[in-house]
Amino acid sequence: MTTHHESKLFINEGIFGIFDNGEVPVETADWSAGLIAPMAAGAMVRTGINTGNVRVEVETGAPASTPGEWEEEAAALVWSPTGSLRIESVVEGPGLDLPILSTFGPGWYEVAVKARGRRENPDASILDSAEAYQVRLRPAPGTTPPVPGSTSSETDPDEEARRRRLLQE
Q1: Is 146 helix (H, G, I), strand (E, B) or coil?
Q2: How many whole angstroms separate alpha carbon 91 and alpha carbon 16?
């Protein structure tokens, strides 16, 4: 059985979140997948518009959409330390019409995000954009919790490059 939830979500600075308990460890975001950026906890999703409202739907159960209905898609593993992953506006907080996504509690989840309309009005401010997103989560069995950060004082050689990349996004 498929369950479908849909809501408008306010976008600011071209992103919305899949945040765990409202935490946003933005300094850990990895934008290499383009559409979705996993973080130390949760993830961010890049939109086409800069500011305005987009439609976000959450589906659970068997996939209901047909191939070709969506223009872009990306998937990532996302860590949920508290088991409270929710779709959130960076400015307004959780989409109240959308359910908690991490229904199996704390752990790793496979997140798939599909999008359409991202290229229609890039970086625009549109009160009601035609952009739409579908988010699907399922537990990722057999994965272990992330290893806490090293206490070593050595600098990670990729850290500075990652920070520069994030600032350019």
Answers
A1: coil
A2: 9
Residues 6+ apart with CB under 8 A from 148: none
Distance CA 10, CA 7 (A): 10
Q: Is the pTM of this model over 0.90?
A: no
> 134: part of which helix (H) or strand (E)?
strand 125-139
The amino acid present at 150, given as its one-letter code, is S
3-class state of residue 16 by DSSP: strand
Task: Work out whether strand 36-38 and strand 72-80 pair parallel, antiparallel, or are unpaired.
Answer: unpaired
Half-sphere exposure in the Cβ direction for 122 (13 Å, CA)? 1
- DSSP run (H or E) holding 132: strand 125-139
pLDDT tens-digit series, residues 92-124:
999 888 999 999 999 999 999 999 999 999 999
Quick: pLDDT tens for 119-168. Answer: 999 999 999 999 999 999 999 977 676 765 533 334 444 555 655 555 56
Q: Which residue has the tokens 């593993």?
A: 77
Among 27, 115, 107, 104, CA closest to 75: 115
pLDDT tens digit sequence for 35-57: 999 999 999 999 999 999 999 99
The tokens for 125 are 């401010």
